[in-house]
Amino acid sequence: NDTVTITNVGFEDLQSINIGFPNIYSSNLKYYMANLQGEALTIEEKIDEAREIYWLNYIFPQPLKPKETYNFSTLTVFAGLIQFQKGGYTYSFAEAPALEKQAELCNVTIFFPPDSSIFLSENSTFKRIGKEPIVNNVFINLTPYYTKILSLNFSSVTLQLLDIYWSERVISLESISKIKVSDAFSIHNPGILISAVKVRLPKGAAKIMAYDFAGPLWREERSGDEAAVAPRFGDIKSNENFTFKLTYELDKKNFIKQVDWRGIYIFNFNFSSKQPWLINNLTVKVILPKGCEIQDLNMEPEKIVETTYQKILIYNFKDITPLHDL
Question: Is 67 left (phi over 0), alpha (psi -120 to 50) or beta?
Fold first, then answer.
């Protein structure tokens, strides 16, 4: 998350600004956005092969005139910057953003999980802030095209470093009063042993049950906006996989609104429940009763399958973060 103050000291209007990072992290970039005074900026990706920098070009809605200043914020999401090694984790990324012009000041702060122990080398320019697991470095007159990599080790027993290979959500609107949902996940644990996986659920979820390939994982159904799912036998050890499914019901009135007496309804539902992970592959199936007519969609499905009794809308997504609006 970057906050940028830029002043045009030239004699011509400035249309955009490039902010980048070392090209070796280009495949780790999964999401980005920027905001200038409440207005979203257009962002274009560029590769500088000579300098090995991957640029994000932030285009201003109105050109920045000479002697004027813009303040805007950017948000980027990267995956795979933390690697588990026996005994702890290693974080690796650029020390500071790459710029084409010198920056008078660049204040970089990195926050780690609350229970972290951080191991900084003696010659590191980053320093701890107080007793909290936070490190900081203030660059004065940051040089253009700066791409030095920071690599440091830390330990944490609360960090869940999970790879979500795939997830499938099935939403059935066939019931008269309830929406029936199933969420399946295939998870790999590359980090330390964890006892359970916490899954976010839509508000008002009831009759929640967890399953693996052998059957139910719980004796009784549960309710709530979150479910902790553990394997049938023991914990999820390092480098182990865990595949499970959650089923639950939702009250239709919280997600479906009638807008016309002739039987026209609006269905409003988040496809991912904004899980706190990167989901590599997400499939969503919306099951409608046969005879249901679709008037308008804010998101077109990849395909529609019709059977004798159902109409199924099928969506497929890749690299979904908690910030994606689905």
Answer: left
